[in-house]
Amino acid sequence: MKAKQLRELSDDELLVHLRDARKELFNLRFQHATGQLDDVHKLNMTRREIARLLTLQNERQRERAAAGGEG
To answer: What is the phi/psi pair of residue 8, to 5°?
Structure first.
């Protein structure tokens, strides 16, 4: 999923996507360790997606903190 699409999601939807991506990464690592993974590129793609999701979460937390601190 692209960053633009991720930005349109709510906080709860981001958490769901993050949880799913982490589960997928776990499964991909397990497949890789057992020699069942054909497309190793999926590991990098999944890690990058997790990084995007975490970045968006941090940005939103900073925005909330800045908005709350201005009051």
So the answer is: -80, -10
